[in-house]
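tool_call predict_complex ligand=heme C
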Amino acid sequence: MGAAGTAAADPTKPASNEDGKYYDANGAPTYNVGPDGKVDWYTFSGYRRYHSECTVCHGPDGAGSTYAPALVDSLKHLNYEQFTAVVVQGRKDVNTANQKVMPTFGTNRNVMCYLDDIYVYLRARSDGALARVRPENHEDKPQSAKDAETACMGN
Ligand code: HEC
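tool_result ok
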């Protein structure tokens, strides 16, 4: 890792790493893509979760559809807190004639237990750090991810 606290750090590089979970300088979750294209576990997990829960409306790879916005673009203006708020609470576009609805996912464990995963995956896509394909190589699933999943899913 580069020297912590250095001004104008590369925003596409994580500032810290806790057992395979990466964070930016503001403490928000972020991705890690190695020089060989190997991604962190959460980015890989987020790819899978996105494509099971979000792709039906937001299109494959976060690219958008006629119904819902491209989240690859949304993440250029939404920060982690704003992203989380929309997914938890949902949102209704009341300005258009045919109402478009972003569902409320706050009680959906298949989304809530993997919210950071989905976020870091989309963040990597938004930053252009990840191509529009399934990441081939990924880090092993950290023990802390297994523990958090068990606790969250209530298994
Ligand atoms: C049933 C369709 C549908 C599904 C499924 C869906 N969304 Fe959405 N989402 C929408 C629509 C429609 C909007 C735009 C709402 C508006 O214009 O207010 C939206 C908006 C959003 C926004 C705000 C985008 C912006 O630019 O402000 C985020 C973030 C988001 N969705 C994330 C997700 C995530 C993450 C998932 C999967 C867990 C998901 N959505 C699943 C329909 C969907």
